[in-house]
């Protein structure tokens, strides 16, 4: 019986689309390409998720690859990217319903300290009802390393077979499934919600009532 829902953050609870954000912040393709290289191709951005760099260090390392005319655009990406993102409100609203039905809710995400900015500013209302969360930068492990999934299970005393994990990346789903969890790959908010509702209607807490 599934009694636990585990959510990734990016493209599950809130949009993560760096190309969209870059094109909203800059319009010149050459400048966009330089920003992309300095932030993402450089590897500085994902090193926030591993806990190696905080936003300030990553920002200044990226800026060192550019001239000062990029300073504000870099700042927008590093500190304000979520202001350009769509919130997956239907997914988070449904989580409220599931909580009322007695489901346990968790977040397991490759993310940095910006998670707390999103929660504080209202982009992650689900945070208020979570039973727990594992953020990669805090534990210095990242998906799809199975160790981070096992860490979640162990810390909160969860049984893998009672969990369903939602993530937008196939490899991350497969890692969860290797431990015995159910998995739903999020290709769109509506698709994921439909798949989750079908799964819970068959195997969820209320399916036998």
TrEMBL record:
Segments crossing the lipid bilayer: none
Origin: domain of life: Bacteria
InterPro entries linked: HAD-like_sf, HAD-SF_hydro_IA, HAD_sf, PGP-like_dom2
Pfam entry (one): Hydrolase
Alphabetical list of CDD domains matching this protein: HAD_sEH-N_like
NCBIfam families: HAD-SF-IA-v3 (TIGR01509)
Protein name: HAD superfamily hydrolase
Organism of this sequence: Enterococcus cecorum DSM 20682 = ATCC 43198
